[in-house]
Amino acid sequence: MSSENPKAQIDKRAASQAFTDRLNVTPASCSEADRFRNADDALKTLSSVSVQALRSCVGQEIAEEVATIMECWCLLHDARPASVSQCAELASDLSEFTLVGLSTLNYLAAEDLSTLERRTAGLDASLVATSSCLGAEAASTMLEWLQAALAMRVWT
User: Fold this and answer.
1) What is the pTM of this model?
2) Angle at 48 between CA 22 and CA 128, to 5 degrees
3) Is 96 left (phi over 0), alpha (psi -120 to 50) or beta?
């Protein structure tokens, strides 16, 4: 987890949420904005059961794509080392797990952004959703959010 002080984390979360809230009321009509709004809404409405299912992935043979997404989610949260088990730990707190926004990407190191782009580029959320992993629904939603956020970052 991040060694950053709690006040700084709260400030980042508030800024992230404020940016997301502004985006969600922005009348942008580009497909990237629409895609991000839909992905953000889906992420924010993920059930606790779906997110908790990610915890069952630890120690199991899971699809490589699901592991990649979980590791990428760790980068987004600055949770090190990025791993399936670290993501499962993040999943223990639904509100923290889903508290991300476009501004979250602004706090990432350039290397981490590059890693997110490279590792998520060829993945397909609809295929991830069909994985036999119990966490597939959450992983698919996380991937769609990551890809949509990265596309919006380029657009904005």
Assistant:
1) 0.82
2) 85
3) alpha
- DSSP characters over 68-122: HHHHHHHHHTT-SS-SHHHHHHHTT-HHHHT---HHHHHTS-HHHHHHHHHHHTT
Integer angstrom CA distances of residue 111 from 64, 97, 115, 149:
22, 22, 6, 17
**CA distance from start to end of the chain:** 29
- What the block records as the tokens of 116 is 């997110």
Nearest residue to 153 (alpha-carbon basis) of 112, 124, 117, 109: 117
Written as one letter, the residue type at 116 is L
Written as six digits, the tokens of 35 are 């895609």
Q: Which residue has the tokens 């996380």?
A: 142
Tens of pLDDT, residues 80-117? 999 999 999 999 999 999 999 999 999 999 999 999 99
Q: Which residue has the tokens 């980068």?
A: 75
Phi, psi of 109 (to 5 degrees): -65, 150
The CA distance from 125 to 148, in Å, is 11
